[in-house]
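INFO batch 0412 | record 1 of 1 | parsing
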Amino acid sequence: MADTSGVFRINPLQAWQREAITKAAQMIRDKFGNPPEDAHARQAHEGLLEVLDPARRTARLQREMSEATRQVAMAPRTERRGKERRRKDRRRVDLGAPPGISERRVSERRSGKDRRNRR
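INFO prediction complete | emitting tokens
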């Protein structure tokens, strides 16, 4: 009895299906070269071979994931952090009021009523 425990398990190909896929892959190789130079033909050829051998697809996906991971690791950092963001700490320098705005002379802005002790 076949093992059907896998969620994504597919039925094995019948002989006529395998033969049709093999002939289609051979036709692509004959028409476009081996390996096919045309990008669409190469994709179709690889897809047909992946149908015949699912382990080939798994290996391709793992290769693509590792390449994507490698690209991210090698990419230059575009984030601004710590020293890169500010060479000097602006908070240490008193620049005064912005130009065109007079300084506020009143130290307390409340209207005089203490809202915290209201009853």
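INFO post-check: The CA atoms of residues 81 and 87 lie 11 Å apart.
INFO record closed
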